[in-house]
Write a structure and sequence with these properties.
The chain has eleven helices and 15 strands. By secondary structure, the chain is of the alpha+beta class. The strands form three sheets. Strands 11-10-9-8-13-14 form a six-stranded antiparallel sheet. The protein has a five-stranded antiparallel sheet with strand order 6-7-5-15-12, covered by helices on one side. It has a four-stranded parallel sheet with strand order 2-1-3-4, with helices on both faces. α3 (70-86) packs antiparallel against α4 and α3 (70-86) runs parallel beside α5 (107-120).
Length: 453
């Protein structure tokens, strides 16, 4: 590409440094960007990508999320833009109107930035492009940015920037999640064991006695998600994977190793222990899905045929219709039908609001996951309940390429129906051993497909 191509994205120093004086700039970049890179994602890839972006662009417009949280970085930039705008700087005003964000990392990192943009309540929130730099890469795949971890050379980064400049804006639903549990009657106030919650879920502090969200005598946590909330066996496997990666970070240096380890953990965690002969209501994993990408690009909901839409009042799975698709799985063997043509899970419902209640029972904990980030959730040991409520919060702006997998209810080109056979199961031949974000990723050979018969 031409040497001046990068000028389309560069932002001058004075825009990025608080307290700067208004400057005259002759060139207005048509596509100014702020780049956020998780330098710890993808082994060495995150660090290499950070260096390349800082070499090509102004280093001040490229942030390492390992050193600076996105809320602080964005707050600083927008405060300076507003200050310059008040002082009559038209350049700052145009930057604010045209700004786009790029985030490189796993789904959890992307969700972190999306949450920050939402919390800042900007009058003109910037659209976001996602670089696939994780294990599943569901968010990037859903909007056409691919599944595979990217190359980090200058040519590859320039090609990505070119896609960003040409990408279309697309709104997606933002879902609010609230979790509430009783504080213990005796002992410390913090949950035991302490919760290691994802970035997108945090403690909600009381602001008044009349506050309905934070009831007296309860721990309340709240946050948001854009792709999915899941609980059960699937989240347990993810939790085991993340725990092992924390203990042995040197082992997880590339995407293929990560995904193969993930699949093997599925075999050892009991996810493959049951057969498909179990009753349909024996659900061991529930997924509340917003985007058509789960576990590295699979679509558990699919598209119901005309008869199913009519019988159960289902609608096509749009990402901006204020509806979540709720899907259940009995075990991993049931999940393997996703690799068959038009395979899908057990469709439970479409909903605008969901409430889960966990009462005293056989288990003292379960596993939950939000957009790729899992945690171990204690369950009641007395007669109390743990409540999880999900509700529609609003929408955020994403950037989508021409390969976008997500459908908008406002886009005439989005399909209204599909004549699928709507069967719950399908043959899983050798070709379906390949799944996940990397084309070379395979289900381990020790997994016996005869269980599907």
């Amino acid at each position: 590409m031409a040497s001046n191509f990068i000028d389309n994205f560069k932002i001058p120093d004075y825009i990025l440094v608080p307290g700067s004086e208004v400057e005259y700039v002759s060139h207005m970049p048509p596509c100014p960007v702020l780049v956020f890179v998780n330098s710890k994602s993808g082994g060495q890839l995150g660090g290499n990508l950070l260096k390349t972006y800082r070499t090509l662009l102004n280093p001040k417009q490229v942030f390492d999320l390992g050193e600076q949280a996105p809320d602080k970085a964005l707050s600083t930039v927008y405060a300076n833009l507003e200050s310059l705008n008040v002082r009559g700087d038209q350049f700052a005003k145009e930057i604010k109107e045209k700004l786009k964000l790029i985030v490189a990392g796993g789904d959890g990192t992307a969700g972190w930035l999306l949450g920050v943009v939402c919390d800042l309540k900007l009058s003109n929130p910037p659209p976001i492009a996602t670089v696939p730099l994780g294990t599943g890469n569901n968010l990037p795949f859903a909007f056409g940015w691919g599944k595979k971890n990217p190359a980090t050379d200058e040519g590859s980064v320039e090609a990505f920037l070119d896609q960003v400049m040409k990408a279309k804006e697309m709104k997606i639903d933002n879902w609010h999640i609230l979790m509430r549990m009783r504080t213990p009657k005796e002992g410390p106030c913090d949950p035991i064991p302490p919760l290691e919650l994802p970035h997108s879920l945090h403690a909600f502090h009381r602001v008044s006695k009349a506050d309905e969200l934070n009831m007296e005598g309860c721990h309340t946590f709240r946050g948001g998600f854009w792709n999915y909330f899941s609980m059960g066996m699937d989240a347990q496997v993810s939790y085991a994977f993340h725990s092992e990666r924390k203990q042995n970070p040197e082992k997880f240096k590339n995407q293929l190793v990560n995904q193969t380890t993930y699949a093997k953990l599925g075999c050892t965690q009991g996810w493959f222990s049951a057969s498909l002969s179990h009753p349909a209501n024996s659900i061991r994993s529930i997924v509340c899905l917003n985007l058509p990408s789960f576990s590295g690009g699979l679509n558990p909901w699919g598209t119901p045929n005309r008869r199913k839409q009519c019988d159960r009042d289902f609608t096509p799975p749009f990402v901006d219709d204020g509806l979540l698709e709720v899907v259940g799985f009995r075990n991993a063997w049931h999940g393997l039908v996703l690799f068959a043509p038009k395979g899908h899970g057990t469709r439970l419902a479409q909903a605008r609001r969901i409430r889960f209640e966990f009462c005293k029972g056989a288990a003292d904990h379960t596993f939950m996951r939000i957009d790729g980030e899992p945690w171990k959730q204690p369950l009641p040991v007395d007669d109390d309940t743990v409540v999880v409520e999900i509700s529609h919060r609003g929408q955020v702006n994403m950037l989508a390429t021409q390969n976008c997998k997500s459908n908008s209810m406002y886009d005439p080109s989005s399909p209204c129906h599909d004549d699928e056979d709507d069967s719950d199961e399908g043959s899983v031949a050798e070709e379906f051993r390949k799944f996940g974000a990397a084309d070379t990723f395979r289900i381990p050979d020790e997994v016996d497909f005869s269980h599907l018969n």
